[in-house]
Design goal:
Distance between the termini: 41 Å
Strand content: 5-15%
Strand order of the largest sheet: 1-2-3
Shape: globular
Number of strands: 3
Oligomer: single chain
Helix content: 40-55%
Number of domains: 1
Number of helices: 6
Radius of gyration: 15 Å
Order of helices and strands: HHHEEEHHH
């Protein structure tokens, strides 16, 4: 198991939850996260062009980050219900990072997907999709934070 001390507390707790479960139950927990992913806000539902695609994912997923003036990050995902693994990863990122300060989001290690103890439950291609989501989130947060700093 990878050391998770450098993860934000919210993501560390999620990683510890996965690691503490028997392997067969980890996929079930991922599916629970997929059910908890909030729908897009109404203001974004009719504007898919505002969301960025994540081509690393096998399923069509789109995301948008917003950074408030105080540096608080908000995450928005569009992921189809018939893609529960992808939705689950988005749900983990949403639960672990939505409402966090930009610095916290930018400090999440790129190997987060591997730290969730899911490598035996899902394919490397799917884990790569989660890494792609995180990379896009961090790039958007970095760009938007720089724009705010002016």
């Amino acid at each position: 198991m990878l050391e998770n001390a450098d993860l934000p507390e919210s993501l560390r707790e999620i990683a510890e939850d996965f690691a503490s479960m028997p392997k067969p139950e980890r996929l079930q927990l991922l599916l629970e996260f997929s059910k908890g992913l909030p729908a897009l806000p109404e203001r974004l539902q009719d504007h898919p062009e505002l969301l960025e695609p994540v081509p690393e994912c096998q399923s069509p997923i789109f995301l948008l980050t917003e950074v408030d003036d105080d540096g608080t990050v908000h995450l928005h995902f569009s992921a189809p219900p018939e893609a529960p693994t992808t939705r689950g990863f988005a749900g983990i990122l949403h639960e672990g990072l939505d409402g966090a300060p930009a610095e916290t989001v930018l400090a999440v290690p790129a190997d987060l997907a591997l730290r969730l103890s899911l490598s035996e439950a899902v394919s490397p291609l799917r884990l790569n999709g989660m890494s792609g989501m995180l990379a896009r989130i961090q790039r958007q947060v970095s760009e938007k934070s720089a724009a705010l700093a002016g």
